[in-house]
Design brief:
Mean pLDDT: 84
Low-confidence stretches: 1-6
Strand order of the largest sheet: 1-2-6-5-4-3
Order of helices and strands: EEEEEEH
Oligomer: single chain
Shape: globular
Strand content: over 45%
Number of strands: 6
Helix content: under 10%
Length: 95
C-alpha cells in the first residue's frame, strides 16, 4: 500500500450531533486546522470542514479518530483524481 505505515484500512464514518459536534473515524492525518476550517485526510479522501469556533476535542492518531466541536457550516470531500493532489486541493480551496 502506498500510504505505507503498515496500517489496515479503517472504516470512515462521520457522526454529527446538531451541527455542534462531529465524531470522525478513518482519519489518516490532520493536515491543518484553525477555528474556521479543518482539513483531514481520511480513508475516503480529503475532507474539509468549515464553520465557526471550531475546536478539536479529541485526537487519536493511532485509531484514526477525531472529535470536533463548534458550529459546522460545511462538509466537503475534495476529489483528488487530477494526479497531483496538492495542486488539486489548494486550487479548489483558494479559487
Amino acid at each position: 500500500m502506498p500510504s505505507g505505515q503498515g496500517r489496515n484500512p479503517r472504516d470512515h464514518n462521520i457522526n454529527m450531533k446538531g451541527r455542534k459536534s462531529l465524531e470522525i473515524t478513518g482519519v489518516k492525518q490532520v493536515e491543518s486546522f484553525d477555528n474556521e476550517e479543518f482539513l483531514l485526510e481520511t480513508e475516503m479522501g480529503y475532507l474539509s470542514i468549515r464553520g465557526q469556533h471550531l475546536q478539536m476535542k479529541n485526537l487519536d492518531v493511532d485509531e484514526g479518530n477525531v472529535s470536533i466541536k463548534g458550529r459546522v457550516d460545511d462538509l466537503v470531500y475534495l476529489d483528488q483524481h487530477n494526479g497531483d493532489k496538492s495542486k488539486g486541493f489548494f486550487g479548489k480551496l483558494f479559487k
